[in-house]
Amino acid sequence: MGILIAVLGVWFSSSLVKGHSKAVTTSLTTKWSSTPLLLEASEFLSEEGQEKFWNFVEASQNIKPSEHDGSDYSSYHEMLKVACQTLSPLQQNLLKFSLSLRSYSATVQAFQQIATDEPPPKGCTLFFSVHGEKTCEFDSLGNLLQAASERPKPFLFKGDHKYPMSNPESPVVILYAEIGSEEFYSHHKKLVLKAEAGEITYVLRHYIANPSKEKVYLSGYGVELAIKSTEYKAKDDTQVKGTDVNATVIDESDPIDEVQGFMFGKLRQLYPDLTKELKELRKHLVESTNEMAPLKVWQLQDLSFQSAARILTAPPAHALMVMKDLSQNFPTKARAITKTVVSSELRAEIEENQKYFKGTLGLQPGDSALFINGLLIDLDTQDIFSLIDVLRNEARVMEGLHSLGIEGLSLHNVLKLNIQPSESDYAVDIRSSAISWINNLEVDSRYYSWPSSVQELLRPTFPGVIRQIRKNFHNFVLILDPTHETTAELLNVAEMFFSNHIPLRIGLVFVVNDSEDVDGLQDPGVALLRAYNYVAQEMDNNYAFQMVMSIYNKVRTGDQLKVEHVVSVLEKQYPYVEVNSILGMDSAYDQNRKAARGYYEQTGIGPLPVVLFNGMPFQKDQLDPDDLETVTMHKILETTGIFQRAVYLGELSNDQDVVEYIMNQPNVVPRINSRILTSDREYLDLTGMNNFYVDDFARFTTLDSKDKTAAVANSMTYLTKKGMSSKEIYDDSFVRPVTFWIVGDFDKPSGRQLLYDAIKHQKSSNNIRISMINNPSEDPDSQNTLVAKAIWAALQTQTSNNAKNFITKMAKEENAKALEAGADILEFAVGGMDINIFKEAFESPKVDFILSHAIYCRDVLKLKKGQRAVISNGRIIGPLEDGEMFNQDDFHLLENIILKTSGQKIKSQIQKLRFEEDLASDLVMKVDALLSAQPKGEARIEYQFFEERYSAVKLRPKEGETYFDVVAIVDPVTRDSQRLAPLLLVLNQLINMNLRVFMNCQSRLSDMPLKSFYRYVLEPEISFTADNNFAPGPIAKFLDMPHSPLFTLNLNTPESWMVESVRTPYDLDNIYLEEVDSVVAAEYELEYLLLEGHCYDITTGQPPRGLQFTLGTSTSPVIVDTIVMANLGYFQLKANPGAWTLRLRKGRSEDIYRIYSHDGTDSPPEANEVIVVLNNFKSKIIKVKVQKKLDMMNEDLLSDGTSENESGFWESLKWGFTGGQKNEDVKQDKDDVLNIFSVASGHLYERFLRIMMLSVLKHTKTPLKFWFLKNYLSPTFKEFIPYMAEKYNFQYELVQYKWPRWLHQQTEKQRIIWGYKILFLDVLFPLAVDKILFVDADQIVRTDLKELRDLHLDGAPYGYTPFCDSRREMDGYRFWKSGYWASHLAGRKYHISALYVVDLKKFRKIAAGDRLRGQYQGLSQDPNSLSNLDQDLPNNMIHQVPIKSLPQEWLWCETWCDDASKKRAKTIDLCNNPMTKEPKLQAAMRIVPEWQDYDQEIKLLQSLFQKEKETGTSAKMPGQHTHDPAAHVEL
User: Fold this and answer.
1) φ/ψ of residue 1088, rounded to 5
2) Cα–chain-centroid distance for residue 143?
3) Of all helices (H) and strands (E), which one includes residue 1187?
4) Are 819 and 786 contacting, i.e. CB atoms less than 8 angstroms apart?
5) Using an 8 Å Cβ cutoff, are 172 and 200 in contact?
6) 1023-1056: b or e for each residue (b if 16 or more CB lie within 10 Å)?
7) Is 463 helix (H, G, I), strand (E, B) or coil?
8) 3 state SS of 1023
9) Cα–Cα distance between 665 and 651 in angstroms, integer?
10) 816/1230 Cα distance (integer angstroms)
11) Is 28 left (phi over 0), alpha (psi -120 to 50) or beta?
């Protein structure tokens, strides 16, 4: 104690510092009102399943916070208690995290917007909507329901909550209400009764009648305070009044709070009476460490390794904290880190690991990556919200495996099995007599000159050369209906292959009407077949093929084949033959007529025409004749490679039949059934574990669907291949990886047939087990279930083999018929059966098992009575239609697929666990269903081989629970580390994980690696204040910041968020803490969520440049609109949570195009309206295909036929949740508005900007419209501009565009702003604006700009002024006079980007924007190129996108032009002077005499504005000025 007092005493005498620590804080809120957490929790549960949602709704009425103290804390915990009843501890943590993130606030708000759009009847707290009619009274519901069926059913969204017992035929009642309100529960009960009685379909949507005044505080974003270069001073000298900020920002409760080795958190606890002195000491220490003197180059070199060493010396529990602190405050920590020693073991291990990182993961030193259970999480594209989805998905699978008894390491081994259903191509057997081959490479004389050895495949050739070898490597079969209109084109392609000697064996199958009484004189298909067969017999198949070609040559394009076409060719080629005898009734030329149809039906290859290549069917879209040729050639080259490998490995030798070899490949199946091969699959949840069985019907009915499935599985007895029952012999190898449950009514022929086919297939395979589920067609009693009971009795009482023989007998039709007719069951007994127990079981009157099965089929499998289905390893295939064929071949295919994708892999893992046979086979089935049901994702990555002794932070998981396997690879001094460290800290609180963080350091740094402070806003759970209220939402706090640097603040948000700064008096572009009183509080608002998309024209496959989309609601159809870019057909629309309708813009877009199809949207593909629902914070990307209307094929969107009323194009986006009022633009003659575009950021540039506007206004008589880039404007500017517009009578519009995610991102704010000046000119402005002038903010205009607008650009899309050459003393700084630029420009001038004029019509027509973006994408990957982005890019593109050079007097700037030319100057620009580095403000006052007058005039206006705002006399709020309804429109 004495020592501490001494330290404090000594220090006090030397330091008389006063004042508080200074801080910067940032918060981000939504535009919409805060949503109740109860509703957000219900949405979390609904993603776990609708059953959980409705249970929660029921249970939530028991939440009564009043029993406690009624505080936020107690009501929150009461709600959690109810929500967590059915959740595992891990899911409970994820629920708390989702609530802290408020990730379901957007979902609740989406419903709120849908309700607002209805709109709600006046004065109701809840209301019903029945097919469009609304009421608040439950009593009037009856009347609405009576007439409901006449009105169309409402559109239901994917996220809607539909009561499970609802009857799909009945009318839909939508209740809009707030769960948790008294009123809701009384109505809910009544609706549930109606739904259960089958009278209505009950749908619940959230609707909050009295929304809260609070906003939602968001998290999941990063805030960066970057240190600015102060080479050129760009700070405004205007003084700013600080606002009162709650001083609780400075967090004194941090338990560690370590500064220079002093643990202040501990000290405060030990010496509470010295709080004040400790605070002063802490402040002194902070300020002494915060000084950021620049480091020498030799000190920088090893910073990355030194930081890693510092992190790894900390105890593992604190290592992540150290990493977070280091990376987030690096500029002040760097000096201390330079003293750290790096051990040689650490360096060697990191360098060794880097070889692996590069070789297996493609990571360079300094790169980072995060893997969760082997899944790559890309931090650049995946936000925290999609990360939660990954965690929840993984949790479901892991908990499923855990409940099946698979734990620890073996759980992770099973999890990492890659069993995604492969999109592998199945082939059918082409060794059929139904195929008529027109050539054979191995025997036809025309191929004699070709070599015949398979070794020829290994002879080197040029790439892309097709080898001519006399073997049938490539077999091309056309299965055609001769009367189909595409047949002729397909045959032409085959003929072309044949005549060009392509090594392709070509076969034909004509599928025609095969009924006896149709002959070739009535049916053209039959005629063609008979003619073909006749010629084939007389001559050969090749002649016959040529004759078919001559027949089709007679058919005009677009017409169908007729009998007379066949007759005329026959008569001409074979004049002496009686045509009737070939085509007529008694024709002998019907070979293959039945066989061809049989082959086509047996192979199950889908609708005609079909083309097989080596038995594999081509996709429908590949059958277009132009594509078919390319695709086939491509296939030939592709399969050649496969054959080369086979010959090389000795699998294929010269004496083998090649076709036999191809047909013996594993992907050849007797039949292709699309029902089995579809990628859209449904699985049972087999993870339930219980001890219930189906023979207790009363108990069975009470179980939920997961437990019902478990009971059915528990009750199964299986048939397996002969005699290998577990009772008789135990052998490891008989884990059977495929389990079929046959569902059907076995007292009906169709059910028995399905069972019989399954058993027949089983004879050939020892991999499968078969069992049955009864789905009776009528209510079961002991009379109509004889076969089912017999089967059940046999399974229950007999050995496996006897049961199988008996059941096979029962499945035969004649035996079943005899049984129904009253024969005694014992007549069918097979040898060896124990007849007495069997008879006793059969005659028992209980049919519980059938009743349970029937209910299971209805509720879980969703089958109608008597419908058939097959369940294979939990995958439901069905319901099968009546009469649909599902035979032995289908079971063969099904088994094949399961073995290939999942069965064998899972079996080999399960065998290692040593379970006994039946249990193991059950486990394979259950694990397969669990893993295969997962959405198809990326493959998991294996990473066993990294060394982790010295260079990894390791955190071990809690014992005995499931854990996530998390691997991070990171360089501690990169931007990624600033984000990754806090993320891992939060994950560590949420999930049990086995974490390894590998260091991936860079050596020999030459520059400071991190020049910014960073905070990642993320909290694992909602926090509370000391008095049990909700703490104010999560915010970013920068405490104890150094005072000397100049900072700029940037937000780093998820891709689809558009945020704007809404309140702060400070200049966030230039934060200088020396001049700040205490706290700079920046408040941001989430302005929009972005809807992005890609659009293509299906006819050309190209993006339709200039196409416009609009987004709106039913009441206001156009709220925002946008233009499609040529790059990737990209477009973006600004929206907020809710349901929106996407349409083509009225006018040329809608006249020329129609929407053909859409993907990723929320309306069914055939719907004529495209509805898009935004109901979460994740990115939403849709794909839209459009098609030109038939009569508009030759029209061009960007041509001059502009008849569309282009008014009100980018219309106002002034809508909260009331839907703002829209005012149509009053269209002026567009030639007399002068459009001026400018960008500014920071108070100084905004001050310049206002002065630039004033100088333009003073010299121009034409009406003006200013366009500003909204993204970076300060709140003060946005507030003042409407006032200025009113006083000076001009129009303005704020435009914004989010930098597209696929375009290379800039990280520095200044460069981003430069990018906006040039990269998006074609999409920032409406099509109606045909010329725009860009004027830099720091310019002064001295002439009428109309002259510049009307200047002729000689066909160039834009005009720039070249740099002056007249000021000679600056020659050394003219970089464009030498080196790269001199050679690239080749005598042309280098232009300055401070002033330019763009002819937007021309610019769009030649796709200049797309070319500029393309070039930018290529150049910007190199950090050293495009140093002045907005200027270098157009100059670099001067050869592709020409620039018109404007006369020199259009832009004068002192740095480059001599004083003599100043008097002719039409505009003066305040260029930076690299020689004198003079600050902008000083230069402005010195160079431009009128500048100060303008400045004074604006200042006067500002003080007037302040006065009016305070007294509230005539000040108007933004957007309400009256003189011109169209003056302010926001983009």
Assistant:
1) -145, 155
2) 44
3) strand 1180-1188
4) yes
5) yes
6) eeeeeeebeebbbbbbbbbbeebbbbbbbebbbb
7) coil
8) coil
9) 11
10) 86
11) beta
Q: Which helix (H) or strand (E) holds 1460?
A: none
Give yes or no for a contact between 453 and 473, defined as CB atoms under 8 angstroms apart. Answer: no
SS3 26: strand
Q: How far apart are CA 1290 and CA 1262, in angstroms?
A: 10
Backbone angles phi, psi at 414, to 5 degrees: -70, -40
- Residue 259 forms beta bridges with which residues? 262
DSSP label at 798? S
**Ramachandran quadrant class, 519 (left: phi over 0; alpha: psi -120 to 50; beta: rest):** beta
**Which residue do the tokens 């500048």 mark?**
1491
User: Tell me, what DSSP letter sits at residue 220?
Assistant: S
Residue whose structure tokens are 């109608």: 864
Cα 28 to Cα 969: distance, rounded to the nearest angstrom:
30
1497 contact partners, CB below 8 Å, separation of at least 6: 1254
List average pLDDT for each run of 10 residues in the chain, which is 1531 residues long: 48 40 87 88 87 87 64 84 85 89 91 87 86 83 81 84 80 88 86 85 89 88 88 68 48 56 73 78 69 79 91 88 90 86 91 87 88 85 85 86 80 75 73 89 89 84 80 91 85 89 90 80 84 86 87 80 84 82 79 84 81 86 77 85 85 86 80 75 83 84 84 84 50 73 87 86 84 85 77 82 83 83 80 81 81 86 87 86 81 81 77 73 82 76 77 86 89 92 90 90 88 90 83 86 87 88 87 85 90 84 84 81 85 89 86 85 76 87 86 76 37 31 39 87 90 91 91 89 92 90 85 88 85 92 90 90 85 82 85 91 86 86 80 88 90 87 88 84 87 91 89 52 37 39
Please tell me what DSSP assigns to residue 1124.
-
Helices (H) and strands (E) in the chain, counts: 50, 49
- Closest Cα partner for 1195 from 1284, 1266, 1282, 1099? 1099
Return all residues near 140 (Cβ < 8 A) that are at least 6 apart. none
* Apex 1014 CA angle, 1012 and 1018, nearest 5: 170
Which residues neighbour 176 within 8 Å (Cβ) at sequence distance 6 or greater?
111, 115, 118, 120, 126, 127, 128, 129, 205, 206, 207
The neighbour count for residue 849, using CB atoms within 10 Å, is 24
What pairs with residue 1118 in β-bridges?
A: none
DSSP 719: B
How far, in Å, CA of 1120 to CA of 1126, rounded? 20
How far apart are alpha carbons 1473 and 1456 in whole angstroms?
A: 9
Contact 825, 819 (CB under 8 A): yes
Instruction: Please count the other Cβ atoms lying within 10 Å of the Cβ belonging to residue 338.
Output: 15
Q: Cis peptide before 1263, with omega less than 30 degrees from 0?
A: no
Q: Which residue has the tokens 């076709």?
A: 659
Q: Please give the helix or strand (H or E) that residue 506 lies within, else none.
A: strand 505-510
DSSP state string for 87-137: --HHHHHHHHHHHHHTTTHHHHHHHHHHHHHSPPPTT-SSEEEETTEEES-
374-377: long-range contacts at Cβ-Cβ below 8 A with a sequence spacing of 24 or more?
374/415, 374/416, 374/940, 374/941, 374/942, 374/943, 374/965, 375/937, 375/938, 375/940, 375/941, 376/938, 376/941
Task: Name all contacts of 121-126 with Cβ < 8 Å and 24+ positions apart.
Answer: 124/209, 125/177, 125/178, 125/181, 125/183, 125/209, 125/210, 126/175, 126/176, 126/177, 126/178, 126/181, 126/183, 126/184, 126/187, 126/207, 126/209
Assigned token pair, 424 = 């592998």
The tokens for 936 are 């198809």
Check: CB of residue 217 under 8 Å from CB of residue 1464: no
